[in-house]
Amino acid sequence: MAEETASPLTRTGTTEAGFAGAPGRGRGRSRFWRSPADQPRWARPALLGVVLLAGALYSWNIGRSGYAHYYAVAVKSMSVSWKAFFYGAFDPGASITLDKLAGAFLPQALSARIFGFHEWSLTLPQVVWGVLSVLVLYRLVRRWLGAAAGLLAAGLFAFTPIVASMFGHAMEDGALTLCLLLAADAFVIAMTRARTRWLVLAAIWVGIGFQAKMLEAWMVVPAFVVTYLLVAPGTWWRRAGQLAIAGAVLAAVSLSWVLLYTVTPARDRPSVDATTNDNAFSMVFGYNGLDRFGLHVPGAARTDFTDPSRSADLKLPPELERLVVPQPGIPEPPGEPGQPVPEPAPEVAPPDAAPAPRAEEPPRAWHKLFGERYATQVGWLYPLALAGLVAGLVQYRRARRSGSEWGGFVLWGLWLVTFAVVLSRMTVMHSAYLAALAPPLAALAAAGAVLGVRLFRERRAVWLLPSVLVAQLAWTGYLASRYAGFLPWLAWISVGGGTVAAVVLIAGALRRRALVPAAVVGLAAVLALPCAWGLSAFDHHYAGSAFEAGAGPSGPVGVDLDSDTSDTLTDAQRRLYDYLVAHQEGARYLAATTSWQTAGRFIMPTGQRFLPMGGFSGQVPHPTLARVRQLVETGELRHVVLGGAGGLLTNDTELYRIVVWVATRCPLVPPAEHGGDPGLFVFRCTAGN
């Protein structure tokens, strides 16, 4: 297109042909780096450069990306058992599910089946999702505001700190991000053409995203519905009818796994974790939904993050007191008798290290997304994105129904506002939740930059760009000052260069002169520091972990949250494992455990069947005491391992009753006999106990 080739900053809008794709130039596959006929020559090479850098960033530390212990155990189980794969079970025996839908972990399990179970094989799908997400966002924004805006949006998104860390680890948020972008891509086509099939495709992608992150995927639906009603061609009734059809498809795809569980007899499927009533609806809409906002749904298990008022005050009865006193063969703790055990020396963290991630205080506050912990991960572009949103809505208000530009601003704006409001009103347990804010922020920031430069050059709204640059400069300087020891030289260059450019632009505005080079330099200066934070993920020290995403010094710097997660057995674990195998006697399970963590330490390296009791929280009544006694009587269970982190927390649980029964009816195997960790209590249960 001649106009776009002459000036990449002036192209806005799109055409029907733009969505359908331009005819090829007859080039071979070996010349894929050349831009299509409807794009400027620099667009494709520049995009490939961004994509290659993003792919390198996401995969740089793939060999030591770590395991998210709970989810990695489930992936191991799903990679060795097709039943566990189909039902999203935590253990190879498919006795209980994960505490959430398992859609995001299925690609990881398939990768582990193909390449073996490794840190890199679990992370590989997320690297692919990340590269695809960058490409989809580029296509979305290019069709909306042109190649320059598309390229800038792709780069800003790819190097957003939380995004750079998230796609480099085995996290389910990467699958959600890709699904939402694909849904938005199909939706924009539907909005422009008023085509039902594209709207249905958007609903399918959101439904697939629901399988990855449940209700978080539905948070884009308000933006889709309102934008379609306001912008799409056709009568109001036609638009409403199309939305109703898409809504039905969305519900069917989203709830497919939940409905499968509902109609399958309980005896033929795993128990549902995170529930006390074995109901998948309680797990999805309660434990992983309304309970996060302090609204309890009957049947949803309560934990310390769904109900902070719960206490973990456990009082052991006399029958269990022997479990907390030294047993024969258990070494005494260091120190003099009767003296407190000395505290280990604290680890020295780097000077720029952030404290270990924890639930924010307060957990529900409108301003928490502006705090240094979250804003440095996803919010560097707040001023530029807000300016782009307002300027776009005003600039294209008269063309609301004749073009897609105004609708694009409505879509991205509503997406951003919806997620921001919800995340502000809920407890954000993992910073990767924030990644859903990155696409609209990148798109709107790119729109603000391109639109601001174009209006400044055309001498319309000449004060817009200088004002936005000053606001962005102040915000960037504030965030940089919170971590003054991190890249101080770049912070000074960014702030100094932006300040000089702002002064030049203000002078140009006073004289009504369009100093476009100064505008470009100023924007590049203030955007350099956020991108540098994202690129810091090349350094494993700043790359985050599989448990908690975050790049730069506000992430989990120097905190290895998954350091105790291993795909190999320790010597003590190997001895205990060998003992259990030697004394299995045809039992279905090698052992039952009072903690998923204890079971996981054996499942990950071996893939063998261990029976985790109590679910993730220890509150789930699975298995029941009656079921455990039945397994013992029928010879399907011979050993029960008590102890280990997590599990038994309160007295009023089925797990507590099982522990009491085991401790009073089954003989204790001496640690010297099983040779395992003396902190674990191994009981041998036989028929008649």
Layout of secondary structure:
Elements: H1 2-6, H2 16-20, H3 43-59, H4 69-80, H5 82-87, H6 106-115, H7 119-145, H8 147-158, H9 161-166, H10 173-193, H11 196-213, H12 221-231, H13 236-254, H14 256-263, H15 280-287, H16 372-378, H17 382-395, H18 405-424, H19 438-457, H20 464-482, H21 488-510, H22 516-535, H23 571-582, E1 591-593, H24 596-606, E2 610-612, H25 625-633, E3 639-642, H26 654-665, H27 671-674, E4 681-684
Parallel strand pairs: 1-2, 1-3
Antiparallel strand pairs: 3-4
Helix pairs in contact: 3-7, 3-8, 4-6, 4-24, 6-7, 7-8, 7-10, 8-19, 10-11, 10-12, 11-13, 12-18, 17-18, 17-19, 17-20, 18-19, 19-22, 20-21, 20-22, 21-22
Output the strand order for the largest sheet.
Answer: 2-1-3-4
Number of helices: 27
Alpha-carbon distance between the termini?
Answer: 83 Å
**Which range best describes the helical content: under 10%, 10-25%, 25-40%, 40-55%, 55-70% or over 70%?**
40-55%
**Share in β-strands:** under 5%
Mean pLDDT: 86
